[in-house]
Amino acid sequence: MVEVGLTRINVLDGVAAHCVAMLDRSLLLTDLYELSMLEAYDANGMAETAVFELFFRKLPPGRGFLMAAGLEQAVQFLEAMRFTPDELDWLRKSSLCSAAFCEKLTTLRFTGDVDAMPEGTVFFPNEPILRVTAPLPQAQLVETRLINLLHFQTVIASKAAHMVLAAPGKQLVDFGLRRAHGAEAGLLAARAAYLAGFAGTATLLANRDFGIPVVGTMAHSFVQAHDDEATAFERFASARPKALTLLIDTYDTERGASIVATLAPRLAARGITVSAVRLDSGDLAAHARAVRAILDAAGLRAIRIFASGGLDEWSLLSLCRSGAPIDGFGVGTSLTTASDAPALDCAYKLQEYAGRPRRKLSEGKATWPGRKQVYRRFTDDGTIAGDIVALLDEVADGVPLLLPAMREGKRADHLPDLAAARVHAASSLAQLPGALRRLEPADVPVEISRGIRRLAAAMDRTATQDQGS
Amino acid sequence: MVEVGLTRINVLDGVAAHCVAMLDRSLLLTDLYELSMLEAYDANGMAETAVFELFFRKLPPGRGFLMAAGLEQAVQFLEAMRFTPDELDWLRKSSLCSAAFCEKLTTLRFTGDVDAMPEGTVFFPNEPILRVTAPLPQAQLVETRLINLLHFQTVIASKAAHMVLAAPGKQLVDFGLRRAHGAEAGLLAARAAYLAGFAGTATLLANRDFGIPVVGTMAHSFVQAHDDEATAFERFASARPKALTLLIDTYDTERGASIVATLAPRLAARGITVSAVRLDSGDLAAHARAVRAILDAAGLRAIRIFASGGLDEWSLLSLCRSGAPIDGFGVGTSLTTASDAPALDCAYKLQEYAGRPRRKLSEGKATWPGRKQVYRRFTDDGTIAGDIVALLDEVADGVPLLLPAMREGKRADHLPDLAAARVHAASSLAQLPGALRRLEPADVPVEISRGIRRLAAAMDRTATQDQGS
To answer: Whole-model pTM?
Structure first.
């Protein structure tokens, strides 16, 4: 990993460990229908154990796999889950549910179990990545926010992982807060990208809340606010001399590079090192070559080149393959909005209630019934050979991927922190076969077990008989 | 507007008026480079007046216009802008800036002016929708979060407005919280969609915080949790009898409709009215026709049909044109992620500093210099004839679109609330010429004034001379 010396890279382990990002914890962050169903369950005494599973139906074009992310935030949400007195007060006044039912909501907590793929695990369509086992009302109410938390970070981690594979050995930095969909999206996108192998983020709050290395350069407005570029560079260098990166494309990239070539020795005499220059427009490969030549001719081989501006995994791949002398990349919009596939088809579906498997048959959206586990088999050299989705009580070869995340409403002891999840993500990516690492990937090796198929067929026969009766 | 009787439509004016959605207000929700530049501005005493403008560079395919949204949240952010003692404490410990500079940040507030298009205004590329006039450090620091707030809601309002035009007279409801990019995105998407003409949202918190009508049906899991569909419907109806909507596609849509046809008279005898049924899968037009026939044959003409499931403006247009008997639509993912164009190319650029116009010349990203206003001309029947972007001191025909939103750091008196903005949005849409209302729109009638072109040319000549010297 080449470390481009952008202004300050900083990890505040001690501080970050004490700061948990305060995401919105309101239980009103849900769909009205969850509450409606809870009231109806309550009226009919339906509180037996339900099993819901969250899975993704298919891969978007250009993705060979997905990467699980967001479990930490999901567990925090479930652990803290309750209606506050203010929220209950509002619900009572709103007449959205009866006063008697509101009263029962005061003691609502999550007391169930969660099994999930650890964050950073690579997975494929139709594999449950999370299973909730809890009294029906609890497992139902959390649907909206669980999907909201797990879908988004999984979308971003998956996108980021493909970028990491497209630009091996390059320093990738999240520049995307401004185009992210709101504050929480910006913050969690920084987290998901770091999890997937990004080196850092430009977002200050992601440093404070998650301990993610924070990186910064300068904006065009800084250069524009000065009457000439050389003065702008010199002033910035004097005020922020550490790990100095100068943005050289405000007027003309090569002229910007020449100014740096003249300025760098003068700054060096004052003990200030120009660490990198940033390009942000035009043909980045061509500019990088020209800038490299200008800097090298001035004996400034140590100054790194950092590029940004509308990049995605395809342009990263193309720039890296072309051998353009670029050491690191800032990726914004395409990362934090996952612009080619900002949403994936995922679902959180009831698979079992009161000891009986359940199945939805809606056209094009039928689900596999029953409590399931995913087993992964490997070749001798540790590459993923294939997965099998099986019933929990079936015998299957391979390593089980869904591990305990919560028991009786409490976080499991061994849940990995972000640093551990990032290591797991890297080793998970290293296990991918070549055919799935490409941006035009092969088909995915997922098998549905014989037990699940038998169960589904048996349920369909029963359903047909029920209809007939 | 057909009002489908989904479970509870509810506006809590009194309550909502007292609840301001608490979005994340942290000033650390910014890029490190903003802080770096502030420190360098401070070191060089650069605190004269800067003018930044926010504009969108181009329309994505399938959009004839954009709709301005998010100003209310932007103004709230600027009014409340300050580093908290905790944040300053963290900054000091982080060594991300010098102790002396941290000290100066304690008194940082926004004291500038903001002029902006009122929310709900229809606009076109290269038109500034917001102008900030403030001391340079203030105007710089707010860049990241201002774009983050205004870009997202504008993206969603624009998408929603095209859906509103595609489905005239139909009740459109936001169902998209689960796939939105986090909590804030879900909440603000509900707001932006309502602003643009949606009738309501499924998100409870959007009702509490913004007074947006909240709407709900039932989920497949409710039906699945019962041993048969008829029991599920009957129990739900008994527990939640008001504005009752039954989801009929869990197993087989037409069979679901027949169950409703049998059940509705029995419920009616108990004083419970089935208001609507919801379809969520398969060929919605075909199912709607079949379901309509089943209900009509049973004399249940008053039961409305509501449809959902992967809808976007194109499928809405097609369903409405086909004359499918659908009265309302729930739109989720494509709305709250603006899935075909989740990000637009927008920028917040320095146009003037210390009384001098400024221009960025980066390849493909050059900006028009100077403080600007947008003037809109209308035909005799009130249709938009064309816009002209002009310098503030130029004389131009038409109605100025940028209006005072803040003066000296305080909110302008007349800033419209959400209800007023929604009325403005509707009249703004009504002013669109037919050619711009289509999903395959005509070119946009925006002119750049002679004054701006002259100024840009003069600046480019000077820049060339500077380079030569």
So the answer is: 0.94
